[in-house]
Amino acid sequence: MPAIVLLGAQWGDEGKGKVTDLLGERVDYVVRYSGGNNAGHTVITPDGQKYALHLMPSGALSPSAMIVIGNGVVVDPKVLLAEIDGLAERGVDVSRLRISGDAHLIMPHHRALDLVVERYLGSSRIGTTGRGIGPAYGDKVARMGIRLQDLLDPGILRKKLELALREKNQLLFKIYNRKAIDVDATIEEYLAYAERLKPYIAETRVMLWDALDRGETVLLEGAQATMLDMDHGTYPFVTSSNPTAGGACVGAGIPPTAINKVIAVSKAYTTRVGSGPFPTELFDDNGQHLRKVGHEYGTTTGRERRCGWFDAVVARYACRLNGVTDLVVTKLDVLTGLPKVPICVGYEINGERYDDMPMTQTDFHHATPIYEELDGWWEDITKARTEAELPENARRYIARIEEICRTRVSVVGVGPGREENVVRHPLL
């Protein structure tokens, strides 16, 4: 079987973890290919157990799939080990984990710089999680990064860290008036991580190539989402990697010709965390309804998510950019009880209508949504398992999303549980 990409079609938090877990028992490998512990997936198992995963691929809850952290991920070893220990304590088998030796490490100076730079920016801040992800990717691009494989060679680790801190400590101490990072203490800390992580470090590219050669199914799981992509998102209010389908090839070492299915996940409305433009954002009772009923608080940060109506311009952009074959619409149940459920079908900018994403960030900042209002429904849909069991207005809403996005809606989420889905077309 070729590879499958699973990604977010909005600004993240769409429910990718649920879909990954849904597919996890039917795939052989689940690979995380981008981001760091600034992402979070919440997975609820059939017995009601809730798991918040940050670095571990969501397939960790599958009883058999190999789980892989690819070269495109930045890894905070302390966070990863805490997550491994937490899962093991709950009876989850983590021996199936493999981590690319080429994945870059988040170091103490990355976290320190992330926090002070955000504070320094004040009202112009990006809205990062402060976990060092951006600075780690910055060092990667600047060819100053430290990789997991460097943990296996103490001499190389020290040499690279001393070189990095020659600059970073100057910034921390002289520019931001913060304490410099101690080389020896950091080396001691990270070599202790190395002892525990060594069994998991592997050449994951070859592992995945061999799996594909054997006809096994590889699921590539993106963190964050399309509109947070470094190149194609709402720059600069984006993440520091490429969570789009093209990023899967780079972040996991999978050739593009191996991918034959791209599954995008979108909420039945829209949310985002942090700063940046958000045309359909709501500041009224409807926005409060979406936040309260949808439990819209970040898995990783606990921050309130900004909420708004479904933006079909964004969703169609994501579908075309990623070559989406199947769209999964989650949290349809959150819209139950609303008399009207608007869909943004275009933008008005300076008196002109746009049906596609405007070229400039300035125009997107000033976009006013053009809405098409559909009638809502009052029936409880959480028990629906077939499309026929959904209220007529709910079916119309999904059909309209499918029509505007020009992509088939294969699965509709009607509740947070693993089984609370309406499958219109099988994903596998």
Automatic annotation (TrEMBL):
Q: What is its main location?
A: cytoplasm
Question: What's a single GO BP term from this record?
Answer: IMP metabolic process
Name the enzyme's class: ligase
Q: Which reaction does it catalyse?
A: IMP + L-aspartate + GTP = N(6)-(1,2-dicarboxyethyl)-AMP + GDP + phosphate + 2 H(+)
Q: How is the cofactor bound?
A: Binds 1 Mg(2+) ion per subunit.
Look up keyword ATP-binding and say if it applies.
no
Q: Where is GTP annotated to bind?
A: 12-18, 40-42, 305, 331-333, 413-415
Q: Matching Pfam families, A to Z?
A: Adenylsucc_synt
Residues binding IMP: 13-16, 38-41, 129, 143, 224, 239, 303
| GO MF annotations in UniProt | adenylosuccinate synthase activity; GTP binding; magnesium ion binding
Location comes to: Cytoplasm
Q: Which residues form the active site?
A: 13 (proton acceptor), 41 (proton donor), 140
According to the UniProt entry, what is the EC number of this protein? 6.3.4.4
Q: Which GO terms describe its cellular component?
A: cytoplasm
**InterPro entries assigned:** Adenylosuccin_syn_GTP-bd (IPR018220), Adenylosuccin_syn_Lys_AS (IPR033128), Adenylosuccinate_synth_dom1 (IPR042109), Adenylosuccinate_synth_dom2 (IPR042110), Adenylosuccinate_synth_dom3 (IPR042111), Adenylosuccinate_synthetase (IPR001114), P-loop_NTPase (IPR027417)
Query: Mind listing the UniProt keywords for this protein, alphabetically?
Result: Cytoplasm, GTP-binding, Ligase, Magnesium, Metal-binding, Nucleotide-binding, Purine biosynthesis
Task: Indicate which residues the UniProt annotation says bind Mg(2+).
Answer: 13, 40
Q: Which pathway, per its entry? A: Purine metabolism; AMP biosynthesis via de novo pathway; AMP from IMP: step 1/2
From which domain of life does this come? Answer: Bacteria
Please explain the role this protein plays, according to its UniProt record. Plays an important role in the de novo pathway of purine nucleotide biosynthesis. Catalyzes the first committed step in the biosynthesis of AMP from IMP.
Family stated for the protein in its record: Belongs to the adenylosuccinate synthetase family.
Complex formation:
Homodimer.
Name of the protein described by the UniProt record: Adenylosuccinate synthetase
